[in-house]
Amino acid sequence: MANQGPAYYSPYPAATYEGVITPPEGKALLLEDVVDEETAMREIAKQMLTKENATIFPGPQVLYAWSDEAKRKATLIKEMAEVLNANMIPMYDYRPKYPKIDAEVEINPNHPNLTIWENKIKAAIFIGVHCHYANVALKIVRAETDCYTIAMCALSGHEDAMATIRDQHASDLEKFIKIAKEVKSELGV
Amino acid sequence: MALDIYKINPEFRDIMPQEIIDLEEKATWSVKMDKPRGIKELPDTKELLEEHSLCAGCPEAAALRYVLSALPKPEDTIIVNSTGCTSLMFPHIALHTVHSLFGNQNAVASGIKRVLDWRFPDIEKDVVVLAGDGATVDIGLDYTLQSFFRQENITTICFDNEVYANTGGQESGATAKGQVFKMAPMGKKFDKVPMWELATTSGCHYSVNMTASAPKAVARAVREAILIAREIGPTFLNIYTPCILEIGLSANEGLGEMKDQDKDRFASYKHVSPEAEEFLKKCKEEGRI
């Protein structure tokens, strides 16, 4: 279990209390360092291609076909999973959790740590997950697992992920896929 | 956008659980319906509580299903509930719900309704309070009555099981005089609060006292109450849903208890204000009821 957090009401230490904040526009975050977006993309691809049970968690903003951008992103995320040899677990929410659903397999924002523990996931990408769920989930995962978490965020990023790239729209995903293919070829995996 | 938020991206259909796919295909969102949603939807509609976590044979579980089936616009309805057995069921339904602090439900609902009217002036949004007798008649009585005084456009439904059931059987204001419970061993000392009468005198345009013995009657009352609340003002339903556990009945005896009470303490009470009466006539002519 994590230590008591700096705020003394949350058991989880939050990155902001350690001075980590979201990256400025055009930049990305690798652990505590602000880096160029391309550098971060290369590191993300490397982590996903080399860690055990790499998994992509697509969230409601891409799981549902509510806009043209969401549809385009869905196609690209599928391609991304193929390039990264990654599994996919939907983080759908907004729908009832019937008791027959196995919450430890189908990720639930309230206990993504269980999903990551049970599946021994060592690298994970959160994409299309609403900010409030991602914030909670990433804090828990960061505190209680050894999973390398990656936030591909369409807004300003998440400081509690190990790697954060921000303002990720369909064109940025295309760029990431291109970089991931290069890294894959360099690593020979 | 509207219902597009419920359409699964074709790319992800293969990774979505079957439950979610079923909901997309079989839910009865009002814009998808060629006929009004209703009680007949219960057996095969995914979002109307396929499973629940209450006691076997619980009349409250049945009543909630009737209420859900009767919502005129489920995708544009927000249910505000309070602590009680029913709150265990809300995680299992595909509707917008807000869990308020115990007793605060009518205050919370008032705020939500006002914001929705401001934020979505062109869309009819319904706010329905669903709480037990402890939250409505005891701890939340002030908030409930104040919302009636203020003429908030919300429907309040009280699942009256005449006891604080999920905390072990304390008497509530709705408990009948003389009733003995595990934590009221001397028997209740004063009369049951006639909440439906309080609702009438406090300004509700529609106030009904009934049991959940007849699904169609419950559904009709719910639909009428919501439509009136949308257009005219506050409405109230008191629905007797006995806690079979606390009064010592078995799982198959809840319906019998409600039917007995139909003729006794819960004999039908219905108040409709003149403007609501006029409005209901119009709704019938337009086929909305």
UniProtKB/TrEMBL annotation, chain A:
GO terms for biological process: methanogenesis, from acetate. It comes from the Bacteria. It holds the Pfam family CO_dh. This is Carbon monoxide dehydrogenase. The lineage of its organism: Bacteria, Pseudomonadati, Campylobacterota, Epsilonproteobacteria, Campylobacterales.
TrEMBL record, chain B:
The keyword Oxidoreductase applies. Keywords: Oxidoreductase. The keyword Repeat does not apply. It comes from the Bacteria. Gene3D superfamilies: 3.40.50.970. One of its GO terms (molecular function) is thiamine pyrophosphate binding. Residues 92-239 form the Thiamine pyrophosphate enzyme TPP-binding domain. GO terms for biological process: small molecule metabolic process. This is Ferredoxin oxidoreductase.
